[in-house]
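Summary for the steering committee. One of the milestones for this cycle was to obtain a three-dimensional model of the protein with zinc ion bound, which we needed before selecting residues for the alanine scan. The sequence and ligand used are listed below.
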Amino acid sequence: MNHKHHFRSFAQNEFGYIGMCEDCRVVNVAFNNSLFCLSLDQFDAFAEMIFDRLAMQPFGTTHGKELLLPTPMPNYFLLFSEDDLANLCALLTEAAPVLEAQRILDLSQRLS
Ligand SMILES: [Zn+2]
């Protein structure tokens, strides 16, 4: 994401932030060292996947981080602890109403 578009932040905590590029309408979910770039529709699916732990598998080790989420890269997985997941859910919950409003705005602009 190397561009100089106008970025608006909707949620932030010490682990990351959620915002949107107002020019290309891409939602950025930054969490720890991961960055998810999503459309508004993809954001809803992403939030549901995280809230409901869809596609997550238990990954039992002695190190915590016991939830494993596959990625499209076959050799790369995301690992979450319960605390990680709670922190990510807090960000998603905070940003969701604003993103819903953005989506309604997009829809009404498409219809006018
Ligand atoms: Zn942009």
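Key point for the committee: The chain has two helices and seven strands.
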